[in-house]
Amino acid sequence: MKGNQTMILIAHSPLHGDRLWRRVGSRDHTTRDGRQITLAEWESDCTICGKPFRATTPGNVSTAEQSKTFQTVTCEAHRMTPANVARLRYAKAADRPAILEAMKRDMIA
Ligand SMILES: [Zn+2]
């Protein structure tokens, strides 16, 4: 794939709905055993603060199902704790937006 080609993926999260990922580039990476590989760089928006954050996958990934990376929904600063994930998971679907809003207030305050 050419580096300047824009690629968009939709990753479905059971707790956060459809999430958009933009492929923003690629870079060379040397693995621990010395192999040269290409990593794809992706960008998505944090579900807590709304700011874009980046993550990488192997360069040949082209669908959301190919990497667990696309299940990430927050930037580094707003990683969901297991307790918060559980609060969302075990809530009724209708209650989730309000719970997420409360988490946002706690995390951004
Ligand atoms: Zn964030």
Structure, explained:
It is a single chain. This protein is α+β, with helices and mostly antiparallel strands. The chain has a domain at about 5-80. The protein has two helices and four strands; from the N terminus they run E-E-E-E-H-H. The chain has helices spanning about 80-90, 95-109, and strands at about 5-15, 15-30, 35-45, 50-60. A four-stranded antiparallel beta sheet has the order 1-2-3-4, with no helix packed on it. Strand 2 (about 15-30) and strand 3 (about 35-45) form a beta hairpin. Helix 1 (about 80-90) packs antiparallel against helix 2 (about 95-109). The longest helix is centred in the last third of the chain and has 13 residues, at about 95-109. It is elongated. The N and C termini lie far apart (about 40 Å). The mean pLDDT is about 90. Bound molecules: zinc ion.
Q: What is the count of DSSP helices, taking H or I runs of 4+ residues? A: 2
Distance between the termini: 42 Å
Low-confidence segments, given as residue ranges, are none
Q: Hetero groups bound?
A: zinc ion
Number of E-state strands: 4
Mean pLDDT, to the nearest integer, reads 92
Strand percent estimate = 25-35%
Largest sheet: 4 strands, antiparallel
What portion of residues is helical?
10-25%
* Outline type: elongated
Oligomer: single chain
Structural class: alpha+beta
Radius of gyration: 16 Å
Q: H/E element string?
A: EEEEHH
Order of strands in the sheet with most strands? 1-2-3-4
